[in-house]
Amino acid sequence: MFNNARNGDTTNALLSRFSEMLSVSPKYVMFGLSLANEGILGGGQAVYDQYARNMQQLINQSRANNITPILVSCYPNSAYSSVEYDYIIRMNILLQSFAPQFNVMGAIDDGAGRW
User: Fold this and answer.
1) pLDDT digits (tens, 9 = 90+) for 23-76
2) Could you please report the per-residue DSSP string of 43-58?
3) What's the sign of the alpha-carbon dihedral 53, 32, 88, 41?
4) pTM summary value
């Protein structure tokens, strides 16, 4: 088992460390990154697009190395407005089309994107 998680990680940070994981030849990798860490609060569509693009790249790199990616859905944050909540919901739907996903949002969402 290999844990490369770091609090506050962004997709860019994880992409820069992707090769570290290859040294242990995993069969599976779990990606659980926050849109809040990515900068969705105030970052809007540009941040949404960056996150989607980088997640697709992480998935593609995983598959190219014979690693099965598993995604953890984006999750609530006490600071989200209805605007950010819409981005989170849209991203989770998009992520479902990329790879298998654990839906943590459904378990802890208050219906407005908060814990």
Assistant:
1) 999 999 999 999 999 999 999 999 999 999 999 999 999 999 999 999 999 988
2) HHHHHHHHHHHHHHHH
3) negative
4) 0.93
Per DSSP, 99 falls in state: S
- Residue 79 domain-assigned (yes or no): yes
CATH code for the domain of 64:
3.40.50.1110
Beta strands in the chain (DSSP E): 28-31, 68-72, 101-102
Q: Are 31 and 70 in contact (CB under 8 A)?
A: yes
Query: For residue 7, what are its two tokens?
Result: 């609090």
**Cβ neighbour number for residue 62 with a 10 Å cutoff:** 21
Amino acid identity of residue 52, one-letter, is: A
Residue given tokens 């992520």 in the structure block:
95
